[in-house]
Amino acid sequence: MDSKVIKKGIIVGFALFSTFFGAGNLIFPPGIGFASGTAWMSGAFGLFCSGILLPVIAVIAVNNSGGNVKNVLNPIAPWFYNFFYLIMVLMIAMTSTMPKLAATTHEMGIKALTDKVPISVTIFVFFIIVFFIARDANSVVDKIGKYLTPVLLIALLIIVVAAVIKPIGTPIPAGIKKPFVDALITGYNTGDLTLGLMCAALFFNALKDGEIKKEQVNIGIYITALVAIVGLTVIYIGLLYLGATGHEFVTSDMSMATMLIVLVEQLLGKAGSGVLAIIVMLACLTTGVGIATIAGEFVEEFTRGKIKYSKWLIVVCIVGGALGILGVNRIVGYASFMFAVIYPICIIITFLGLIKKILPNDGPFKGGVLMAFLFSLMETLIKGGLNISVFKIILSKMPLSEYGFAWLVPSIVGMIVGTFIIKTKVPDVEE
Questions:
Q1: Model's pTM, two decimal places?
Q2: Are 62 and 221 in contact (CB under 8 A)?
């Protein structure tokens, strides 16, 4: 195998790893480990399935559909590609995710080192760095993969290696009945699969920059996926084991963020706060740069060049900075509603993208997505406090509804029925 392909695949794989590994991904593995106790391996496997495989599979699904995300969105409807990115990039990522990343950098990163820096200064510096890293879209993946991710990985490995070599305790039975299922649901709720779909183009473009031959790009994407899977697995298992061994120092009424801080300080002493701060800042920064880049590229494409990438990048930073100053707890949570509705749709799209080449028509996309939308909308409205008795009755009859997956079986039925009703198939977009 060409060494250039391996090198490029590793660099892009590092970038994929750090794009998926946001601050939230740092927080929940120790919580899963604590809840699982001696069954932490079952918890680890559940997390592996939903928090690692699922997001990376989204990138592979796009690859199997010709390497263009339009090929897994256009079969739903001609307008769905623009709709998806308008919702995910502009309404959710720009006005919710980006401000939260900046605010988290201050509240879990900078404040852990010093309380003398105002949040406005942290936010300003955060978005200045995001802008300068992302201003050249063609070099973003290389910058993240070559420079930021190695530092992030080293800091993470300090915690993971210490947790394994010098465990702070011994796992004890936690009394949890279904550690695999609980961890599976927790990993599912991180929503990282949407990042896989949303940012897939970023990684494909990096592999197609001319350093490797066109026919080798497919190999490069599988190397990229493997690197991300291995990296996420090692880090998640290490953090999960840290939580499993920490029953002497943390309690179930602690938030996952507090639990993480206590465990790392117990493991590494005062130096742990510094290591944790570096991890949080880099995790937020790498994810933020990826989202900002995709937002700029989409808007330039959507407006057919009327709004240039660099100009929209400035808008992203200004909007994110203004909202980020409000702080994590005050940022409006409306995006959670839209995200909860669209995430099951993303899972259906990912699954169908994997098998798109053997599908006879676009019916599975249309039927599956329609049913996923209707049932996830009902679930989200009920969870949001809307008391609609007919929705409750319908959902209660669905398999897996107690786990929040009432949409799954209807979506499968929709895919099957759609196959027989729809006869057309939209041709793939060629690169």
A1: 0.92
A2: no
Give the pLDDT confidence score for residue 334 in this predicted structure.
58
Phi/psi at 37 (5° precision): 60, -130
- Count of beta carbons in the 10 Å neighbourhood of residue 92: 23
Q: Which residues of 154-183 are buried (b: 16+ CB within 10 A; e: fewer)?
A: ebbebbbebbeeeebeebeebebeebbebb
Q: How far apart are CA 30 and CA 237, in angstroms?
A: 9
d(CA 364, CA 414): 7
Distance, in Å, from the CA atom of 16 to the CA atom of 196, rounded to the nearest integer, reads 9
- Does residue 211 have a pLDDT over 90? no
Element (H, E) at 339: helix 334-354
**For 116-133, how does the pLDDT look when each residue is reduced to its tens digit (9 = 90+)?**
999 999 999 999 999 999
Tens digits of per-residue pLDDT, 52-101?
Answer: 999 999 999 999 888 889 999 999 999 999 999 998 887 778 888 899 89
DSSP string across 231-248: HHHHHHHHHHHHHHT-TT
Phi first, then psi: give them for residue 173, nearest 5 degrees: -60, 130
The torsion angles phi and psi of 250, rounded to 5 degrees, stand at -130, 160
Give the per-residue pLDDT at 288.
94
Q: What is the DSSP code (8-state) at residue 143?
A: H
- Collapsed DSSP state (helix, strand, coil) of residue 267: helix
pLDDT confidence of residue 23: 74
Which one, of 110, 28, 106, 27, lies nearest residue 320 by Cα? Answer: 106
pLDDT tens digits, residue range 181-204? 889 888 887 778 888 898 888 898
Q: Which are the contacts of 132, defined by CB distance < 8 A and separation ≥ 6?
A: none
Lowest-pLDDT range of 169-178, 223-232, 302-311 = 169-178
For residues 268 and 162, is the Cβ–Cβ distance under 8 A?
yes
Q: How far is CA 189 from CA 44, 94, 339, in A?
A: 15, 20, 10
Q: Are 113 and 274 in contact (CB under 8 A)?
A: yes
- The token duo for 287 is 């994810």
For residue 384, report the phi and psi dihedrals to the nearest 5 degrees. Answer: -80, 0
